[in-house]
Design a protein that fits this description.
With 128 residues, this protein is α/β, with parallel strands linked by helices. The protein has five helices and five strands; from the N terminus they run βαβαβαββαα. The protein has a single domain, classed as Rossmann fold (3-Layer(aba) Sandwich). 35% of the residues lie in helices and 20% in strands. A five-stranded parallel β-sheet has the order 2-1-3-4-5, sandwiched between helices. α1 links the parallel β1 and β2. 30% of the residues are buried. This is Response regulatory domain-containing protein.
């Protein structure tokens, strides 16, 4: 069942590993062919991208990405941003408001479920 939350048209991927970044961009492109995908490989790139994106963007953040563990990245996210935080055993995962935590390695099915949970209205998140 689809949620009432509007599907984002812009996805921001914050990932330094080129192979993981390619997998994430491919996952997004296959499911939302018309979406705009912005890739940040450094904190400075993420800062520049997040300063210009409109409300309603969806973010995929690796927990080892610069600024992810100390809150600097969370502070840059638009208030309506929803997304996924990829958690590795080496990272220092910090909760990000309106984001779902996903353990690495991940599959497309896991990302699909995390997307649905992240986009669900708050009352539905508690139920599922």
């Amino acid at each position: 069942m689809e949620t009432a939350t509007r599907q984002p048209s812009i996805f921001v991927v914050m990932e330094r590993d080129p192979f993981v970044a390619a997998d994430l961009c491919d996952w997004i492109a296959r499911r939302w062919p018309d979406a705009r995908i912005l890739l940040a490989r450094s904190f400075a790139e993420a800062e520049g991208i997040l300063a210009t994106v409109p409300e309603g963007v969806f973010a995929v953040i690796d927990d080892t990405f610069p600024g992810a563990s100390d809150g600097r990245l969370s502070a840059l996210l638009p208030e309506t941003c929803r997304g996924i935080v990829l958690v590795s055993r080496y990272g220092e995962a910090q909760p990000v408001p309106r984001h779902v935590m996903v353990d690495k390695p991940f599959t497309s099915a896991v990302l699909d479920g995390a997307y649905r949970r992240a986009m669900a209205p708050p009352s539905r998140k508690a139920a599922g």
